[in-house]
Structure formats: C-alpha cells, structure tokens
Amino acid sequence: MELSVIIPTYNRYEFLKRALRSIYDQSLLPKEVIVVDDGSEDATRNIQNEFPHIKYIFQANQGVSSARNRGIISSNFEWIAFLDSDDRWESEKLAKHKAFHTLHPKSMMSYTDELWIRDAKVIKVPKKYQKPAEGLFEKSLSHCIIAPSSACIHRSVFEQVGLFDESLEVCEDYDLWLRIASEYEIGLINEKLIHKYAGHSEQLSFKYWGMDRFRIRSLEKLLSLHPKHPHKEKIIQTLKEKYTLLLLGAIKYNKTQSIKIYEQKIEEISQLLR
C-alpha cells in the first residue's frame, strides 16, 4: 500500500510540527508527505527546515478545500490520507489502514474513530458523532461523522466523484463524504487512531454561523447529481428539516428576505414528498 499524506495548513506552525511528528512516528511510513501552506503569515514557510523530507507547497490563501485539492493533484501514489494540521495520529494508524484494505481489497475508502482533546484532557465525544456500524450515509445527512484526518481514500475515488468543493467555505468534508458514500461502501476501522484538539480559535467551525446553510447547498447539489438517489426521500426530509431550522432563525431575527426564501424552499421540497 503506497500512501501519500496531505496536510493543508494556515497559520498553524506549532500545531503543524506536532502533526508531522505523528506521521514520522508511524510504524508504516508513507511514500510522501505533502504540506500545502494556504497563504500562512506565520513561520510555516520554515517547516521544511525541520522536516526536510516533506514536499512543501505554498499558495495564496484560497481555503482548505483548495489546499487539499492542490495536494491531491500534486500527489503521486494510489492511496491518499489526510491529516489536518491541528490533529495528530496514533503510531499504528497507517498500518491499520493497510491491514483493513488487505482484508477488504474491493473497499476504496476507510476511516477510523477518534479521541477529542480539550485542555490536555480527553473529553466525551457526543453521541451523534459516534461511528455507526451500518447506515453511514443516512446517519451522515444531518452532520459530518467522518473527520478528514481519519480518512484514507484510493485516488480512483476522486476520479469518480470529484474533489473537494472549493465553493464551500466549510462543510466541504461533509459534502465529499456524501458524494463518496453515494457511490462506494466506506469501511470503518473501529479504533481511536486520531487525536482531535478542540477549542482553539483557529478552528473553522468557530468562524461561520449557520453551518446548515452550507450543508443545504451540499444536499441540493447531491439531489441534482443523483435525481434517482436510493436515499432520495431521506435527503428531501433532511433538507426540509434544515430549511425549517433556518426559517425559524430568520423569523427570530426578523430577516424578511430570508423568511421568504426559506418558506418558498419548504413549499418546493414538500411538493417532492407528496
């Protein structure tokens, strides 16, 4: 199993060093490590001095989707694993992926469970983020279950479903996993092999209000791509629920134009359920 590891980063120099150390501590080392610096203004451009074997790519700030896509396009090997620069891996993570895909040669993507860390302590992962043994697609409709740092994907998958959607400022991972899960079975390695560090101000989830706005765009796109999707009814129901939540928010803050938009969307989507 020949692996490329892709790390997108933006102004996370100290976190990035921790992430890279966890890659080079792997029992199964990747063939290449690509760091895509998305316009950092800190000391990130010095990272190759400390990790001379990485492939370092600098680009003007264009967002995490662009950075991951740049890494995918620049990679050379058949399997691709992602690691966010504020996360780190357990030392057996890549070896576990290899063992899984050796046992399941037809599987084109796998992901792992995770630990959440806040203030140097392990915290309980909310129930809704726990990894399902089955029914991954339906359980992924309301929110993102797969952490990018947990995923290992065969490059042929991107040729089939496309890359990360660069028009989405956030929820780009949610969007890609739904597209992949619509075409492929995604295998779970039910071990906590990544550490996710919660609570620091640089996290994208803290920068954007109304995350469902972006999930709605993804679900609408999914319906247009797959008008006869086997889970079409569930997708429509989820859209209606999210439109309704955003309508309630618009009413609360007296956003007249948004109220009209979401009332119309609820009526249109309700027609599809009749």
Describe the fold and architecture.
- By secondary structure, the protein is an alpha/beta fold.
- It has helices at residues 13-24, 47-50, 64-74, 93-103, 136-139, 155-161, 172-181, 212-225, 232-252, 256-273; strands at 3-9, 32-38, 55-59, 79-82, 87-89, 109-118, 121-123, 152-154, 187-197.
- Strands 1, 2, 3, 4, 5, 6, 7, 8 and 9 form a 9-stranded mixed beta sheet that branches.
- Helix 1 links the parallel strand 1 (3-9) and strand 2 (32-38).
- Helix 8 runs antiparallel to helix 9 (232-252) and helix 9 packs antiparallel against helix 10 (256-273).
Sum up the structure in keywords.
nine-stranded mixed sheet; globular; 9 strands; alpha/beta; 274 residues; 19% strand
The secondary-structure class comes to alpha/beta
Shape: globular
Helical percentage: 40-55%
**Rg over C-alpha atoms, rounded to the nearest angstrom:** 19 Å
Give the helix tally.
10
Q: Let me know the average pLDDT.
A: 94
Taken as a percent bin, the fraction of beta residues is 15-25%
Q: Main sheet?
A: 9 strands, mixed
Unreliable stretches (pLDDT < 50, length at least 5) are none
Number of strands: 9
The N- and C-terminal alpha carbons lie at a distance of 48 Å
Order of helices and strands: EHEHEHEEHEEHEHHEHHH
Write the layout of secondary structure elements.
Layout lengths: L2 E7 L3 H12 L7 E7 L8 H4 L4 E5 L4 H11 L4 E4 L4 E3 L3 H11 L5 E10 L2 E3 L12 H4 L12 E3 H7 L10 H10 L5 E11 L14 H14 L6 H21 L3 H18 L1
Parallel strand pairs: 1-2, 1-4, 2-3, 6-9
Antiparallel strand pairs: 4-8, 5-9, 6-7, 6-8
Summary, kept brief:
The protein is of the alpha/beta class and 274 residues long. 41% of the residues lie in helices and 19% in strands. Strands 1, 2, 3, 4, 5, 6, 7, 8 and 9 form a 9-stranded mixed β-sheet that branches.
